[in-house]
Design a protein that fits this description.
One of its GO terms (biological process) is spermatid development. Keywords: Metal-binding, Zinc, Zinc-finger. Helices cover about 25% and strands about 15% of the residues. By secondary structure, the protein is an alpha/beta fold. Among the domains are: about 180 residues, Nucleotidyltransferase, domain 5 (2-Layer Sandwich); about 60 residues, no CATH class; about 240 residues, Rossmann fold (3-Layer(aba) Sandwich). It is globular, with a radius of gyration of 28 Å.
């Protein structure tokens, strides 16, 4: 079996959700529109019988006048492979944001076709600022065969043609566009961008996305450049019906108690239609983006079948009745997963193990915070939680789908996010609610005057000493430095006592396959507060790091607020910790190497650490693990689930012949439960921690380290009442690495 819930980028899961729902909406809208008027009456009657949602629903009308979308071409001249639906729907386990840039680009529609905006990296790094244009273009690109537009009863054909002509009318243009080579900027470009003239969104008042529709004008200059909101009633009405009968977000079909519309003209046109659905229309249109000041799109979204990947708005999903871990759409998919070959990837092989993993859910959710029950729930809405606390900027946008506020300086995701703010002397500015305002809310209290008297082994102890309230969500960001602290002070002394690591005055640590943790680099300043007697060097290594940061280094010094820049050798910033150290200065050096770990040259480190590793999900680990085997340094890794730890042990055995230590829950794991798309297992950032067990050198006389010692369970009857017991288990095969 293969689960990537703890590793997939949320942006890409969101893109797959948009595509899947929109594709279904277009097909069903055409089917209803092509039928007699009685079908509409039948649909309206069905919606009137739905239970009522107490939340207010909002129909957003978002016109777009200046930005076009170029699809299906690479960054170099000539036609590219296009952004296929298979990539978007998750056939490849790991698809990163940067993978979208060769296929989707933004162009200006105001000053001609040749002036492309160099915004690919910025738009992807800005969270969801361009979610709709990037992914909304994808459904348009893949729905050339979409049926004719629906038309509610009582609406004229002319209105339907005006509202829907954009999608159908530009199909030939788009087919032509895909075969034409794209010229670089400054040359005559034959590829004509698409213009998404208007975006219709249906949400509830809390931000849960319930439906989406796109109005594509086609080629630049060939469509009206108006507001894009004329004659939208047929499209909007069809969208509302589908959003109630088949909501994109989680939850059963339902109708709202009240609807408000974000456009005055469309509000007037819907006054005679909305009552047919048994829904009350607000007296006046909505004049702002959302009905609440803290409105934001919610991360609470539909789930998928583990086998066929259909979303919960398409089919009813139920967990396996024996392990309750894996979601299936029905008996057929459960049977197919039970019979997978080879046997060690079948659900029959994993069912009892997954049941054991599910039993750890309560233990992982045992945290001291006042908000624990909310953030460890399977229905946790991360964006709403952060927005309610004003945490919509700085590092908080790196761990969520929140859109940075107006006027916020943008830094492409994956670039060095803190160098521009590093020189201001405040190491905690990016951790506050608004790091770009001097009077923004400070979430980190001053450093205590006295160093810690003992070692911290829990969030409760650390929060008490640090002066943090248990209502503070800072643990979500501080999980990275506190995990490093826990490894240094607890795990290395237990597993490698001969190193006497706690008495060292300096440590060189390699953070391997770094990515998100480097985007949050300033949180590691807290290590200087917790380990005041040590000078630390953190070297972030990985081919996922921004190439422009390769070989950069900078030093954070604790003895004053002055700033100095050393040209050619990095940046040195003197940051004040609020205390004066005795016996000399202890600094934190940050180095960056944007390359796979096995290609890194340099001195041997004292310690290697990796966060949420996923050995089986990236081929470079098959080279990096043997490199670690040759160095034989203490190497500790975290995983977001116990399942991931088992898969890492198998990959370690394949790559080196070694193994891993038994995983143990990390007391400094993130309190935020990660959303799992196709399963109900508990996933948390840095949930478990283990270290590598190296294969003894040849000729040492020691017994070789065992491979992945997975006990073979007794084959159980498949979780279906009429299913016969399978025959005897096939001979075991070697461990199979995940794609």
């Amino acid at each position: 079996m293969e689960f990537v819930s703890g590793y997939r980028d949320e942006f890409l899961d969101f893109a797959a959700l948009l595509f899947g729902w929109f594709h279904k909406f277009v097909a069903e809208r055409g089917a209803v529109g092509a039928s007699v008027e009685g079908r509409w009456r039948q649909l309206e009657a069905q919606i009137r019988r739905l239970p009522q949602d107490p939340a207010l629903w909002v129909l957003h009308v978002l016109p777009n006048r200046s930005v076009g979308i170029s699809l299906g071409h690479g960054t170099e001249p000539g036609p590219g492979p296009g952004l296929g639906a298979a990539r978007l729907l998750g056939d490849e386990p790991l698809l990163h944001l940067r993978d979208l840039s060769p296929y989707v680009s933004f162009v200006s529609l105001e000053e001609g076709e040749e002036e492309e905006e160099e915004e690919n990296g910025e738009e992807e790094g800005a969270g969801t600022e361009k979610v709709e244009p990037e992914e909304d273009g994808e459904p348009a690109h893949n729905s050339r065969e979409s049926p004719q537009e629906s038309n509610p009863p009582g609406e004229p054909e002319e209105a339907e043609q005006e509202a829907g002509g954009g999608v159908d009318g530009c199909r030939e243009d788009r087919a032509e566009d895909e075969t034409r080579p794209e010229r670089r900027k400054g040359q005559s470009s034959e590829a004509v961008p698409l213009h998404l003239s208007c975006l219709l969104l249906v949400t509830d008042e809390h931000g849960t996305l319930l439906g989406i529709d796109l109005l594509i004008d086609g080629a630049q200059g060939s469509a009206s450049r108006g507001s894009g909101t004329e004659n939208l009633a047929p499209r909007a009405y069809a969208l509302l019906c589908h959003s109630m009968a088949c909501p994109m977000g989680s939850g059963d079909p339902r109708r709202p108690r009240q609807l408000t519309v974000g456009d005055a003209q469309l509000h007037r046109e819907l006054e005679s239609l909305i009552p047919r659905l048994g829904v009350k229309l607000a007296k006046t249109p909505m004049r702002t983006w959302g009905p609440q000041p803290d409105f934001t799109f919610a991360s609470l979204r539909a789930r998928t079948c583990h086998v066929c990947h259909r979303h919960s708005f398409e089919v009813k999903l139920t967990p396996c009745p024996q392990c309750s871990a894996v979601l299936y759409c029905g008996e057929a998919c459960l049977r197919a997963d039970w019979r997978r070959c080879p046997d060690d990837v079948s659900h029959r092989f994993w069912c009892s193990r997954l049941a054991a993993f599910m039993e750890r859910a309560g233990e992982l959710a045992t945290l001291p915070f006042t908000y624990t029950a909310e953030v460890t729930s399977e229905t946790f809405n991360k964006e709403a939680f952060l927005a309610a606390r004003g945490l919509t900027r700085g590092y908080w946008t790196q761990i969520s789908m929140l859109i940075p506020g107006p006027g916020t300086p943008r830094h492409p995701r994956g670039s060095t996010p803190s160098l521009s703010l590093l020189l201001n002397g405040d190491p905690y500015q990016l951790l506050s609610g608004d790091p770009y305002q001097e009077d923004g809310p400070a979430l980190m209290p001053p450093v205590p005057p006295d160093p810690p008297r003992g070692l911290f082994g829990s969030w409760q102890d650390y929060y008490t000493w640090r002066g943090l309230s248990l209502d503070s969500p800072m643990a979500v960001l501080l999980t990275y430095p506190l995990t490093v602290y826990y490894v240094i002070t607890h795990l290395v002394p237990q597993s490698f006592p001969e190193l006497n690591i706690q008495n060292k005055q300096s440590l060189k640590i390699h953070v391997v396959e770094a990515g998100k943790e480097f985007d949050l680099v300033m949180v590691f300043w807290e290590l200087l507060v917790l380990l005041p007697h040590m000078a630390l060097e953190l070297q972030f290594v990985g081919d996922g790091l921004p190439p422009e940061s390769d070989q950069q280094h900078f030093t954070l010094q604790r003895d004053g607020p002055e700033v100095s820049v050393r040209p050619g050798s990095g940046v040195s910033a003197r940051l004040s910790s609020g205390t004066k150290e005795k016996g000399g200065r202890r600094d934190l050096q940050i180095k960056v190497s944007a390359r796979p770990y096995h290609l890194l040259q340099g001195p041997k480190p004292d310690l290697v650490i990796g966060f949420n590793s996923g050995f089986g999900l990236k081929d470079t680990w098959l080279s990096s693990l043997p490199r670690l085997q040759s160095l034989r340094v203490p190497a500790f890794f975290t995983e977001s689930s116990e399942y991931g730890c088992v898969m890492d042990e198998q990959t370690m055995a394949v790559a080196t012949g070694g193994g891993t230590s038994p995983p143990q829950p990390n007391p400094f794991r993130s309190p935020f439960r990660l959303r799992a798309a196709d399963n109900c297992m508990p996933w948390y950032c840095n949930a478990f921690v283990f270290h590598l067990v190296y294969k003894p050198p040849q000729g040492s006389g020691a017994r070789p380290a065992p491979g992945p010692g997975l006990p073979v369970p007794t084959p159980a009857a498949p979780p279906a009442p009429a299913r016969r017991r399978r025959g005897e288990k096939k001979p075991g095969r070697g461990p199979r690495r995940r794609r």
